[in-house]
Every structure is written in structure tokens, then in C-alpha cells.
Write a sequence for this structure.
């Protein structure tokens, strides 16, 4: 790839072309002059008629004219708001080019027939009067100019297209950064929420002289925070890691709730490698603990399920605690649920769904439906 | 693309200046330019402009033919040449000749002082050798020898022994020609440049183009010898061995290669050449200099015709044929740009040296209509559509369109120009499947008998398919007579033909030559075979007397 890019750069470098053109021009001129050396030296038997200067087609002039036209067209006479100027100058150039071809023809006739210089206007006039002047150079000139303009417009169109693409990409990247920043901000909100609860639990353990358990909670909390910080810069992680995180979390919560807390996992193994937003389930589990298990002494079950339904990943967090309070149904959910909704919307738009509802005869179910994205796509 | 102009004022100024300079150059002075003085090397040298690929091989033709003829006849001398005044054969390489009693054998005595440019004597064997080479060429060239016995068969490969062809070198100075049939114009035909002798070395020199490096190796027997040959043309000097060396007034001849007729005209005006031909109508005039030049006009031995198939019912009627001839407006049919080359033909044979052309035919639309009505076709009613096969190359001939239109407009006679291939046209000619045949005839000798002889050809070669015993008798008599008696027989023949009008002559052709005023001795030759040894360059003093200025 790099070799090809190197050649492309060489081909795009005008200096390479200029050197090639100059080399060709020098070679051509050298050959023409060498071939006509006897005539130039005025040798007695030499004849201009037989030299390549006379016999070569006049179209070889285009070799010398083409770079000049290219230079002028690209550097000087761009079609702009003063396009009449450009047209006028191109018209003058067309006249000059045509005159040059006619002049060369006339000079050849003059030299090959040993006519004096004073006959040049006559020769040119006769070329016009009898053969009609050849206007092919005019047509060729304008064709070349039109081709150059077309190429220029095409280049600019391509550049515009490329710029548009780059802008779109930059915009997308910016948006992604914005989302990531928002996620980070949300996570920053999650961590204190959990942290305060845990610290409260530790405080409670210490007050109750359960220092040994408090130590375990502190150790578990440390492990959780370490993992949370490890994942701060990652928006997604596998469900397996998320569940591992939850287990750590529940180990801490189990200290609070002693044997009353019963955790069930119904996890489809096929879902373990599915990608989910990091710390997605923890706020829901925390809500289940806070608003379900802890509000009713008879409540003890918290069930985490994960299954795949076609191209969707369905996650749920169920607790057998009391039904949702009326004010929460009317005024909207708490901060944990709001954050979850916001994160899902940012990440998946309308492709994700979040439901929080009572599960009669008792319990509350939080259900998440996301696109199924395997960590290692086939 | 920028949105601001980048055209600098100095760019526009430079461009405008260049265009202005170019316009000044293009529309600069084109009159009153100076005439270049004649270089010392060209003093008394005739300089002739030519445009075609001019081969030195005398047995090859290139067009325009006059300059090719003039080059060949400058370097080589044929057996006879035609008198500029009378067109009659005069001694050249042959000093005399005589016919056998049955006029089937011609014996020519070569001049004893005939010499090649290397001093070798010119012998009869040199002619036999050259002509045998010519007989191996394409028929279009070899045809000039076909009057000789077995010549056509040898050219076609039916005869392989060259000795059986009717030409024999009896001795060094005696050449005997045996004819297949009587042909009174044979002696005149021997003036053809194709029939010049060749030195024994010449075929090899021509084949190897050795003359380019060693022009002296091109050994010729004419008044001039090759001094230089190259892309610029040919330079000839006077041959030191020419038998009439003292009669040659030029110091040499230069054939100057030019790119085209316009350049030739400029070279003539500038004083670089002294002669150019032909002059087409489109050549611009006047000249850019004040050099005195003149224009010489000579009739070519060519006639264009509308041959009427006299074996078809309507055209078998003499009144119909006359009506068709009378209805034409020959002058109007000639396009504006051809009027200096083509002239209306009111006879079969154009003007030629020693024989002014007749003016027998005339044009009269009223008389034409009367004759057609008298023949039973008033206003063209009941007249069948005439079929005229035209080859693809001639489909747009302006003359034809005018003739066809005139016949319809004046007589109500319609003509269908059937565009066919050349082969198909030839097939129709041989089978007689046509009413009118657009045709032409070009003579190869300056003799009216050559053109009139077409009416004695077998029917398959005679597009009008008209036969007249009287014409055959008169032509046979002319073949056995000479001088004014012969001319009288030929005039009788022509009048008879024009009376019967099996073919309607429409146009003659003339050639124009542009000459510097200092050329002296120029003469008209209907076949463009001027011999340059007859010409001279007038001295500077004589030149100052001036001449016509174009």
C-alpha cells in the first residue's frame, strides 16, 4: 500500500511532469535541430524541404503549447465572477494559437521554397484565400480548455464530497464524545449513590459492633470501586462482567440483609458475551433492594434474568417486595431509573426499551430490552 | 475555484500585443514586393516550377503531364519531334524515314552524330532495348507501341519472344518498324516522350537511384544533361555531345520543386522561377510583385462528349440527335471556376498546330424544339426517358447536371443518370445498355486523324455505335496521303461526323502557362511537349523593355 501511495504521490507531483516534459522537449528540439544541422549551417546542398522541421506534422506544436495552456488555465484564468475576462483572454489565446500554427505553416513554405521574408504576409494570405485557414487549432484549443475546466470542476466537486464526508465523520465523532461524556457524567452520579448506601451500611455494621463484617464490606466496596474505575472509560462491557460486578455488589448487600436476601440468576449462557452498557443492572438491583426488599420484611427474593429473543437481549430485575408507590407512578421514577432510561436512549435511541411495573400478586419487575450485540461478532 | 480574478493587467497587455503583432504580420503588405535578382548560377537558366513527384524514368508518367514531358524531352531526344507551327513530324534522333509500299513497314535512319552524354553513339539498338523495357510496363504506358506487330500480344504475355515484336535494329543507325495494320500517324506518334531511347546503363541507374549521388551516371541523348537531382528538383546543364549544341540558347534548366500552385505563383512573382503551369482559375491575382509575366494559352487535344446510342430508336433519328445538340447551352454549363480551363466545343477536333479548329455546330433552342416535334415528340411528349450510366466518381459532375436540366427545360426530354460502378458502366458500354454515354477523348499525337479515328473503331469501342462507310473510306484515304491533302480528307471526315452527330461534343480543354517576360521562344504545344532547347532567356537590357504585367 505504501509503495502504491508513493507512486501516486510521484504522479501527482507537478515537478515530475515538468521534468518529463522538459526532457521530452529538449530531446525533440535536439533531434529536430540535429536533423536540420546541414541546412542551419547553410551547407550548399542542404535543403530545408527534407528536414524533419519541414516534414514533421505541425501538431507537434501542441507538445510545447499544452503546458502553457495548462498553467494559464489553472493559475491565471479561472472562471470566476469576472468570467468575461477569462473568455476574452481565452479568445485571444485561441487567436494566437491559430496564428502560430498558420505562421509555422507559412514559415515552412517560405523556407522550403526559398522565398524572401517579405513574402510572409502573401503566403499567409494565400493560405487563407485558397485553402481557407485551418481553424482546427481553435477548436482544439477550446476543447483542451473545456477539458481542463471540466477536470477542475470535477476535482472541486470531489473535494467538496470528501469534505462533506469528513465533516459528517467529525460530527459523528463529536456526538459520540458527547454521549460518552454524558455517560461518564451519569456514572459519576451512580457511584456516589451506591457509595453512600454502602457507607451507610458499613456505618450501621460498625455501630452494631459487626466490625468483622464491616471489614469485608469495605474490602468488597474497594473491589467494586476498583472495577468501576477500570471501566470508567468504557461505555460497554460483557454481561458476564456486569453480572460479576453485581455479585460483588450483592455480597455487600447481603451483609446488610443477612440471610433474608435470596438472589436468583436465570442467565442464558448465550447471553454472557453480549455487550451491555456498563453498570446498567446495578442501579436497578440497588432500587430493588431499596424500594422492594428493604421495605417489606417478608420480601427476600431478587431475581436477575437474561435471555435472548432473536436479535434482542432481554434483562430483568425482579424483587418480591411491595408494589410501586403511587407517587413514583405519578411523579416519575427516581434518579436511578431516570439515568437508566437516559443512558439507553443515548446509546440505542428507539432500539431499546425499559419497563418498570408491578408484578402481581407481589413484586416489581424492571425489564430491559436491548439490541443483542455479541462481544466478538462472528 | 477562486472567487477573485487573477488576470493581471500585464497578461492582458502582452496577449493583446501579441495578437496585434500577429495581425500586422498577417495583413502586412502584399503588393509591390521586390523582385529578387537572378543568381549568377541561374544566369540564362530556365527555371520551371513543378509540384508532383517527378520521376526521371521516361517510361513513367506523372501529372500534370507537360512538366514531365518537358523534363524527359530536355534530357532525351526521341526519333522525331513535332513542328511547333504545323504539328508535322520533324527529324530529331532520326534524320529520315520512309514507308514501304504497303505502308506496313517504316524504316528510320538515325543521325550519325547522335551521341549520349558520355560520348557513346546513339544506336538503333538503344531504341529497341528501351522499347522492349516499355513493353514490359503496364498497358497504359506500353500502349504507345501497340501499333507495332505483336506488341500488344507481347505486353499481354501472349507472345514471349521479343524478337517477334515489329521492331528491329537493322544496323547501328537503321531501325525498322513493322506494323500490324496501316497507321498513318505512326511517325508523329514516335515523338511521344515514352519512346525515347535508353542508354544500356540507364535501367540500373534508375532502379538504384544512383543519379542522386552521381548525376553524371544518368546518360541521356538530349540537349541537356543531368547536373543535380534531389528533393529540391533537378538541375540540367547543356550536353556537350548534343548534335545541335550550338542551337541550344539556354545555359541550363532547373526544375524547381514547389509545394503547391500558390507557392509556384509566388516564386514566379519573386523571381525564383520563370515558368509555371497549369494556372487554375482559383489562383489569386494580381501578383505581389511588379515582375512582368505573361500568360500563354494552348488548347489541349481533348474533347468531352455526350455519345448518343444510335442503335436505340429515338436516337437513331438524326433530327433527334440534332435537337439534343442544338438545345445545349455549352457555355452556361461550364462553372465559373473552370472557365479558363474549359471552353465550349462546336467541333470534334480542337485547334492544333497547322490545323485551326472548325466551328460547325451551333445552338438554337427554337430549332431544337422544331426538330424534336418534327421527329414526333413535340415538347418531349412520348419521348422515352434517356438512360445515362454515370460512374460514382462523376455523379456530381456539374456539366452533366446542366445538360440534363437543359434537355428537359428546352425539349421536355428527361434523362435518368444511373449511378453505377465503373465496372458496371464499362459492362453497359460493351453491351450497349444505355442511351447516352458521358465520354471523352484525348489524343496522343497532334493529328486530327488520331481523334477522328475513333469512328473507325469496332462498334464495341464506339459508344455511339455509329458506323459510316464514307468515314472509313475517307480515313483510309487520309492514311495514304500527307500534307494538305491529308488535312482536307480529315476535314471532310469531321464535317461528315458533325453532320451525322452520333456524338455531341460539349467541351474542349485549354492549358494556361504563366511565363516570365524574359522567356523567349515559347510556343504552344497541344500535348505540352515544348522542347526547351528552343527557348532562351532574354538579356537584362531586353527585359527592361518590359512585358505584360499581371
Amino acid at each position: 500500500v505504501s509503495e502504491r501511495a508513493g507512486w501516486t504521490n510521484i504522479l501527482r507531483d507537478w515537478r515530475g511532469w515538468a521534468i518529463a516534459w522538459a526532457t521530452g522537449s529538449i530531446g525533440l528540439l535536439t533531434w529536430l535541430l540535429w536533423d536540420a544541422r546541414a541546412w542551419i549551417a547553410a551547407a550548399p546542398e542542404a535543403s530545408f524541404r527534407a528536414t524533419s522541421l519541414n516534414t514533421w506534422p505541425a501538431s507537434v506544436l501542441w507538445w510545447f503549447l499544452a503546458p502553457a495552456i495548462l498553467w494559464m488555465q489553472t493559475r491565471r484564468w479561472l472562471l470566476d465572477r469576472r468570467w468575461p475576462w477569462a473568455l476574452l483572454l481565452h479568445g485571444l489565446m485561441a487567436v494566437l494559437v491559430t496564428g502560430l500554427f498558420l505562421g509555422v505553416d507559412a514559415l515552412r513554405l517560405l523556407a522550403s521554397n526559398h522565398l524572401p521574408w517579405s513574402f510572409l504576409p502573401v503566403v499567409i494570405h494565400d493560405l487563407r484565400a485558397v485553402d481557407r485557414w485551418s481553424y482546427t487549432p481553435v477548436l482544439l484549443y477550446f476543447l483542451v480548455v473545456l477539458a481542463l475546466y471540466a477536470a477542475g470542476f470535477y476535482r472541486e466537486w470531489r473535494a467538496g464530497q470528501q469534505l462533506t464526508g469528513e465533516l459528517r465523520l467529525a460530527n459523528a465523532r463529536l456526538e459520540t464524545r458527547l454521549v460518552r461524556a454524558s455517560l461518564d457524567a451519569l456514572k459519576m452520579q451512580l457511584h456516589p449513590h451506591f457509595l453512600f448506601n454502602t457507607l451507610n451500611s458499613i456505618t450501621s455494621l460498625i455501630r452494631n459492633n459487626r466490625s468483622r463484617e464491616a471489614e469485608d464490606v469495605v474490602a468488597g466496596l474497594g473491589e467494586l470501586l476498583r472495577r468501576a474505575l477500570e471501566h470508567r472509560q468504557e461505555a460497554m462491557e460483557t454481561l458476564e462482567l456486569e453480572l460479576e460486578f453485581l455479585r460483588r455488589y450483592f455480597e455487600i448487600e447481603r451483609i446488610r440483609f443477612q440471610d433474608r436476601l435470596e438472589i436468583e440468576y436465570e442467565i442464558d449462557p448465550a447471553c454472557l458475551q453480549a455487550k451491555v452498557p456498563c453498570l446498567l443492572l446495578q442501579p436497578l438491583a440497588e432500587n430493588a433492594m431499596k424500594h422492594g426488599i428493604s421495605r417489606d420484611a417478608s420480601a427476600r427474593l431478587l431475581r436477575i434474568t437474561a435471555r435472548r429473543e432473536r436479535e434482542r437481549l432481554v434483562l430483568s430485575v425482579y424483587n418480591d417486595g411491595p408494589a410501586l408507590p403511587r407517587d413514583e407512578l405519578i411523579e416519575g421514577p427516581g434518579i436511578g431509573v431516570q439515568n437508566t432510561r437516559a443512558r439507553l436512549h443515548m446509546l440505542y435511541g428507539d432500539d431499546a426499551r425499559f419497563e418498570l411495573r408491578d408484578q402481581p400478586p407481589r413484586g416489581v419487575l424492571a425489564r430491559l430490552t436491548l439490541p443483542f450485540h455479541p462481544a466478538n461478532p462472528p | 475555484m477562486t472567487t477573485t480574478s487573477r488576470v493581471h493587467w500585464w497578461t492582458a497587455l502582452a496577449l493583446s500585443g501579441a495578437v496585434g503583432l500577429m495581425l500586422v504580420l498577417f495583413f502586412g503588405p502584399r503588393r509591390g514586393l521586390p523582385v529578387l535578382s537572378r543568381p549568377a548560377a541561374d544566369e540564362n537558366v530556365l527555371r520551371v516550377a513543378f509540384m508532383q513527384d517527378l520521376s526521371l524514368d521516361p517510361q513513367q508518367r506523372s501529372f500534370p503531364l507537360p512538366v514531365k514531358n518537358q523534363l524527359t524531352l530536355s534530357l532525351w531526344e526521341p526519333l522525331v519531334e513535332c513542328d511547333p507551327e504545323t504539328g508535322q513530324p520533324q527529324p530529331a534522333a532520326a534524320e529520315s524515314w520512309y514507308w514501304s509500299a504497303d505502308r506496313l513497314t517504316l524504316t528510320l535512319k538515325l543521325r550519325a552524330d547522335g551521341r549520349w552524354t558520355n560520348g557513346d553513339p546513339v544506336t538503333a539498338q538503344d531504341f529497341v532495348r528501351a522499347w522492349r523495357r516499355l513493353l514490359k510496363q503496364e498497358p497504359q504506358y506500353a500502349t504507345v507501341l501497340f501499333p507495332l506487330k505483336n506488341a500488344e500480344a507481347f505486353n499481354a504475355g501472349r507472345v514471349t519472344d521479343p524478337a517477334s515484336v515489329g521492331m528491329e535494329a537493322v544496323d547501328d543507325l537503321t531501325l525498322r518498324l513493322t506494323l500490324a495494320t496501316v497507321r498513318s500517324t505512326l511517325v508523329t506518334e514516335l515523338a511521344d516522350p515514352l519512346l525515347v531511347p535508353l542508354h544500356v546503363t540507364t535501367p540500373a541507374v534508375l532502379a538504384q537511384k544512383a543519379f542522386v549521388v552521381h548525376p553524371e551516371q544518368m546518360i541521356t541523348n538530349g540537349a541537356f544533361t543531368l547536373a543535380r537531382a534531389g528533393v529540391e528538383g533537378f538541375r540540367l546543364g547543356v550536353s556537350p555531345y548534343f548534335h545541335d549544341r550550338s542551337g541550344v540558347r539556354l545555359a541550363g534548366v532547373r526544375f524547381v520543386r514547389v509545394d503547391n500552385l500558390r507557392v509556384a505563383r509566388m516564386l514566379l512573382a519573386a523571381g525564383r522561377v520563370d515558368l509555371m503551369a497549369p494556372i487554375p482559375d482559383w489562383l489569386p491575382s494580381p501578383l505581389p510583385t511588379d515582375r512582368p509575366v505573361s500568360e500563354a494559352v494552348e488548347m489541349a487535344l481533348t474533347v468531352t462528349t455526350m455519345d448518343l446510342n444510335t442503335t436505340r430508336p429515338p436516337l437513331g433519328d438524326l433530327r433527334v440527335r440534332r435537337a439534343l445538340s442544338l438545345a445545349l447551352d455549352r457555355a452556361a454549363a461550364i462553372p465559373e471556376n473552370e472557365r479558363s480551363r474549359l471552353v465550349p466545343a462546336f467541333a470534334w477536333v480542337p485547334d492544333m498546330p497547322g490545323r485551326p479548329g472548325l466551328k460547325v455546330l451551333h445552338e438554337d433552342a427554337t430549332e431544337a424544339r422544331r426538330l424534336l416535334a418534327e421527329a414526333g415528340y413535340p415538347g418531349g411528349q412520348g419521348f422515352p426517358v434517356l438512360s445515362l450510366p454515370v460512374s460514382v466518381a462523376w455523379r456530381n459532375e456539374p456539366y452533366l447536371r446542366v445538360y440534363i436540366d437543359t434537355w428537359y427545360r428546352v425539349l421536355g426530354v428527361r434523362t435518368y443518370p444511373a449511378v453505377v460502378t465503373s465496372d458496371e458502366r464499362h459492362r453497359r458500354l460493351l453491351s450497349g445498355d444505355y442511351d447516352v454515354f458521358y465520354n471523352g477523348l484525348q489524343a496522343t499525337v497532334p493529328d486530327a486523324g488520331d481523334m477522328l479515328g475513333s469512328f473507325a473503331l469496332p462498334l464495341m469501342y464506339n459508344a455511339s455505335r455509329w458506323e459510316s462507310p464514307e468515314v472509313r473510306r475517307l480515313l483510309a484515304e487520309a492514311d495514304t496521303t500527307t500534307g494538305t491533302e491529308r488535312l482536307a480528307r480529315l476535314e471532310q471526315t469531321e464535317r461528315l461526323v458533325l453532320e451525322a452527330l452520333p456524338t455531341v461534343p460539349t467541351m474542349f480543354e485549354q492549358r494556361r502557362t504563366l511565363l516570365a517576360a524574359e522567356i523567349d521562344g515559347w510556343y504552344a504545344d497541344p500535348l505540352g511537349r515544348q522542347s526547351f532547347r528552343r527557348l532562351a532567356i532574354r538579356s537584362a537590357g531586353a527585359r527592361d523593355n518590359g512585358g505584360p504585367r499581371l
User: Anything to note?
Assistant: Chain B touches chain A at residues 1-8, 11-12, 15-16, 18-19, 22, 25-30, 33-34, 36, 230-232, 257-259, 262-263, 266-267, 270, 272, 282-284, 288 (CB under 8 Å). The first helix of chain B runs from residue 9 to 26.
